[in-house]
């Protein structure tokens, strides 16, 4: 690329070159919300159109206290994300602080605003222009720099052109920053949901272990002693033997309930089989209602699997306790963006809007809260005499 000799401007007097630059920047802005690709494209377009040697795009951080190198032309693109300076330091920091362009034609090392970065090869470049990237709606979003190896006496028109480019790009940079912030919040919310569900499951495992190691073992020991006492008194009195037999029955019943509580607190099928087979195992454990499971296994994060299993568990428990149904179905379906779990029954149904009894309304709230925790939603459709449909839909982040 041939550079204009010293004393000339950026070489954009030709309207066609200006139009080409404008079109290229608009295409870069329209390419997508990624801040890094946008900054890299803008830097490349400016260098190509202005016959300069290198361009740096520094973006203001979310707190407004520092500038980070976000886009650069080769070979300095390798330094993207690694160079940062506080607002007010260096030429770029001075421009960000004063919202005023800075032009240095030569001897920039003697300029009190200049700060040397060995990674950016400042010793190899003679002249530079630094302009703020800002617009009225967005305010300041960053600083745009161009450098040349040979001396260049940049004109007022050159500065106005670069300032206009900075203003044009500012809106897109602002939108890209907002997109990045939203994505970061979504990731933080997802991590929080994972941590909450992991904490819940850890507490359930602890309770299951306490029940198994404490209550269950004592009940087994109690049953053993009751059997021994029954054998000892059976020949003495029928009344004592009858009472001991009744106590033995109660011990067995309590033991069965403790084992059922352990299974409910931490179903091992999720670790061994996955969600679809876990739902099938859950269906087989329900003797009061015939439950059919349809759908295929879905590759899902563990916290989503646990949440959906708990929703299905609560929904089927409601069917057994309240629906007076003979048949139910649990259906699992996945696509690229979401997973759907639907539980239906042929029971007596109820008026969803008027439901106020504590146990059922608590169950509905529990399912809704679990769905919301993983970023999904729960819908309940029912009316007296036509059964109930509970649907949980959860978005799934693509790979």
Describe the structure.
The chain has helices at residues 15-30, 35-50, 90-98, 156-233, 238-265, 269-272, 275-284, 302-323, 358-373; strands at residues 54-60, 66-72, 84-86, 102-104, 127-135, 139-148, 290-295, 327-334, 338-345, 377-382, 388-395. It has 399 residues and is an alpha+beta fold. The chain folds into 2 domains: 15-186, 2-Layer Sandwich (Beta-Lactamase); 268-399, 2-Layer Sandwich (Heat Shock Protein 90). The strands form 2 sheets. It has a 6-stranded antiparallel β-sheet.
The gist of it:
By secondary structure, the chain is an alpha+beta fold. The protein folds into 2 domains: 15-186, GAF domain (Beta-Lactamase), CATH 3.30.450.40; 268-399, Histidine kinase-like ATPase, C-terminal domain (Heat Shock Protein 90).
Task: State the strand order across the main sheet.
Answer: 3-2-1-6-5-4
The beta-strand count equals 11
Strand-pairing-aware structural class: alpha+beta
Number of domains: 2
| Total helical segments | 9
Which sequence of SSEs, written as H and E, runs from N to C?
Answer: HHEEEHEEEHHHHEHEEHEE
Q: Using the 3D structure, state the CATH architecture of the largest domain.
A: 2-Layer Sandwich
Largest sheet: 6 strands, antiparallel
| Estimated share of beta-strand residues | 15-25%
Shape: elongated
Could you tell me how far the N terminus lies from the C terminus, measured between alpha carbons in angstroms?
Answer: 41 Å
Give the rounded overall mean pLDDT. Answer: 81
CATH fold label of the largest domain:
Beta-Lactamase
Q: What's the name of the CATH homologous superfamily of the largest domain?
A: GAF domain
Q: Could you list the spans in which at least 5 consecutive residues all have pLDDT below 50?
A: 1-10
Helix percent band: 40-55%
CATH class category name of the largest domain: Alpha Beta
